[in-house]
Amino acid sequence: METQSRLSEPTTGVTPIPAVTVVICTYNRADRLLLALEALTQQTLPGSAFEVMVVDNRSTDNTAAVCQAFQEQFANFRYVYEPIQGLSKARNTGWQISQSLYIAYLDDDAIPYKGWVKAILNVFETVQPKPVSIGGPIYPLWEIPRPDWVTPVMETLFTMLDGGDAPRWFDEDEYPWGANVIYRRDALEELGGFCEQLGRKGQSLLSGEETLLNATLKAQGKGFYYSPQAAVSHWVPKERITPDWLVQRSYWQGYSVALVDSIVGKSSLYQRLSSTWNLLKRLLELIPLLFQSLSQAKSRLQIGFLTQAKLMLSWQWGYFSRVWFG
Question: Are 296 and 302 in contact (CB under 8 A)?
Answer without folding.
Answer: yes
